[in-house]
Amino acid sequence: RGIEGCGCVTDEKLPMEVFASRNDFKGKITSFFFVSTEKVDFRELLKALARRFKTRIHLQRVGTRDRAKIVGGFGTCGREVCCTNFKVELDSVPLDAARDQNLITKNNSKLMGLCGKLKCCLMYELPHYREMRKFLPHIRQMITLQDGQVGRVVELDILNKRVKILLDDADIAEVFDVDE
């Protein structure tokens, strides 16, 4: 029944969500893990839990990435989330990681992991994308093609090394290989 059976969190109306617990091998310490958006004064909760479980109580506030690591689950790729399987360090993922890979879309929810933050896997290929991007023009950069036509870069296809260019005398953008 765990902490829910105690009714302590709901009775105290504490702004926290307890999601996991564990006991040590000897059964002397019970640890509860929770997430909270604000600071929580849980002194009364500690007393109530100690009376209920008759053990020493340890309450551990964790972040949303740590919660995903403890709870586990499967990502949109169909594999177990990286943080529960092999990822030890849970670093923050900057929005630039998605931008540099041209992954920013109208539906950015596909870029979010179970923790509600940008997926950690965005960092795996980022150095490769950044290396490839060095040889591509920037978005909105003016380009002169080999045949002398001038246009503005409107889109990049980094992996295929292609550039979509809106030529000065055209209404529709055309795709060119970077070599052109």
Strand order of the largest sheet: 4-5-6-7
Proportion of residues in extended strands: 15-25%
Q: Note the gap between the termini.
A: 67 Å
The total beta strand count reads 7
Mean pLDDT: 84
Order of helices and strands: HHEEHEHHHHEEEE
Outline, from the CA principal axes? elongated
Helix content: 25-40%
The biggest beta sheet is recorded as: 4 strands, antiparallel
Q: What structural class is derived from the secondary structure elements?
A: alpha+beta
Low-confidence stretches: none
CA-based gyration radius: 25 Å
Tally of alpha and pi helices: 7
Highlighted features:
180 residues; alpha+beta; four-stranded antiparallel β-sheet; three-stranded mixed β-sheet
What does this structure look like?
By secondary structure, the chain is α+β, with helices and mostly antiparallel strands. It is 26% helix and 23% strand. It is built from seven helices and seven strands; from the N terminus they run H-H-E-E-H-E-H-H-H-H-E-E-E-E. It has helices at 2-6, 8-12, 43-53, 64-71, 82-85, 95-100, 126-133, and strands spanning 17-23, 29-35, 56-61, 142-144, 150-157, 162-167, 174-177. The strands form two sheets. It has a four-stranded antiparallel β-sheet, with no helix packed on it. A three-stranded mixed β-sheet has the order 1-2-3, sandwiched between helices. The N and C termini lie far apart (67 Å). 14% of the residues are buried.
Q: Would you summarize the structure shown here?
A:
With 180 residues, the chain is of the alpha+beta class. It is built from 7 helices and 7 strands.
